[in-house]
Design goal:
Length: 245
């Protein structure tokens, strides 16, 4: 069955993206460690399905307490009609507003996820954040992005305005499987691959802090004994860098 093939493709794609870009993941790891040590903030953003990575990484058992998602109601998948998300991510000016309203400032770390990397909001957000002295990285699909025109006023794609670019190594259109007698391709990979890559990155960040004798700002499960006490301490210590409570 093609489901078996899909699992193999996701596994192989994740491995390829991780192993072939270790130099870039090291830069991100070192920069996140620096951001934490300097008591700056870490942000994740994406529109529509791309925003699932931000949802996965914040307020998460075993995750960094400092990861702040940037959410906007019109980009969430509970928007009705959901097709409005595709229209809104093409509107100029929203990216700047979101940076203003989410306390993003000089010295912070911003990672933007956009598979096509062509739409206005993620591109303008990256451009504006860099003007403010924010470190900007992205996860995108380079082959896909390079095959389409930009919709941003600057004419740039996300990979062209980010300091570090992670290629998710996916297929054009983000669908990996062809089924006989079906014109459309199926089996998107960007969410599965992206969440695996980011969780692996966070694991390395936390390991680096522990090896240096530091206490990493991570969440325990609230359902484990001592979890509530531990999480409260983390929230109090890093209150100036957590904006989702």
């Amino acid at each position: 069955m093609q489901g078996d093939r899909y699992i193999q493709i996701v596994t192989d794609t994740t491995k390829k993206a991780w192993e072939t870009q270790q130099d870039k993941f090291k830069i991100l790891k070192d920069r996140m460690v620096q951001t934490i040590r300097e008591k700056h903030s870490i942000y994740l953003f994406g529109c529509s399905h791309a925003g699932i990575l931000a949802e996965e990484m914040f307020y998460r058992t075993g995750g960094l307490a400092l990861i702040n998602p940037i959410f906007f109601p019109g980009f969430m998948l509970n928007t009705r009609p959901v097709t409005m998300t595709s229209q809104l991510e093409r509107v100029p000016g929203i990216g700047k507003i979101l940076l203003d309203q989410n306390h993003v400032k000089e010295g912070d770390f911003l990672l933007i996820h956009s598979v096509s990397g062509r739409n206005t909001v993620p591109v303008e957000m990256a451009e504006e954040a860099r003007k403010r002295g924010v470190f900007v990285a992205c996860i995108t699909n380079l082959a896909y992005s390079q095959s389409v025109t930009s919709r941003a006023p600057s004419g740039k794609h996300l990979f062209e305005v980010s300091e570090v670019v992670i290629d998710n190594c996916g297929d054009l259109g983000d669908a990996a499987i062809s089924v006989p007698n079906l014109a459309e391709r199926i089996g998107p990979t960007s969410t599965a691959v992206g969440t695996a890559l980011l969780n692996a990155l966070v694991v390395n960040v936390i390991e680096t802090l522990v090896q240096a004798g530091e206490v990493p700002p991570i969440f325990m499960s609230a359902n484990l004994d001592g979890g509530d006490e531990h999480n409260k301490k983390m929230m109090e210590e890093y209150a100036d860098n957590i904006f989702y409570m």
